Amino acid sequence: MDLFVKQSTKLVKGCIANDRAAQEDLYKLFYAEMIRLCYRYFKTDELAKEALNAGFLKVFQHIGSFDYKKGDLHTWIKTIIVRTCIDLNRRELKFATEKWTTEETEDVFILPAALQKLYAEDLVNSIRMLPAATQAVFNLYVIDGYSHKEIGEQLNIGESTSRWHLAEAKKQLRELLSHGAKSNGYPSEKNKITK
Q: What's the predicted TM-score (pTM) here?
């Protein structure tokens, strides 16, 4: 058993026993990664922190059901945090009830060269500039790997609406990233993002 598994096993046992020190240590151990995950889903720091804290509350309430045989602690906590973000998004977002068809959406390609020039923080900030519904769908599809069907079920929207939000996210990111590349002084030809 490696050191991380031993440490996390001890923390899980402490959390099951409602040991505040173990809960604090578990929170600190996963805080940085999980808050970054929450920032991807929300425009404001307050909502991201609310999601993080609500997610960890669920972690502590259900830590007794965690089973190492079914997976690792990191994946279990991440799943709870993502689902909490989805729930909070569902509460906060007001999706349009309009239906979009696939023909109305265009697939936008972002050149890898343009992405390589961006820092991760710039990319996250660009994603956070998207409208809330579009941002949520982009994160679920591109970053977390959900299908349009799963996104539709999670957010109570149609698959075509999910596809529209993804296409809109790509379109807006293309514009944001191309403007950011130009303002950073990169030659415009190298950073031109095309379909």
A: 0.61
Structure tokens at 24: 């604090």
Question: Which one, of 77, 97, 74, lies nearest residue 155 by Cα?
Answer: 97
User: How many Å separate Cα 144 from the centre of its chain?
Assistant: 7
CATH of domain 3-92: 1.10.1740.10
Domain 102-183 in CATH 1.10.10.10? The answer is yes
Along the 195 residues of the chain, how does pLDDT read in single tens digits? 567 778 888 989 999 999 999 999 999 999 999 999 999 888 888 999 999 999 999 999 999 999 888 888 999 999 999 999 988 888 876 554 444 444 545 555 555 555 555 556 677 788 888 888 888 899 889 888 889 998 888 888 889 999 999 999 888 888 887 776 555 544 444 444 443
The residue ranges of every structural domain in the chain are: 3-92, 102-183
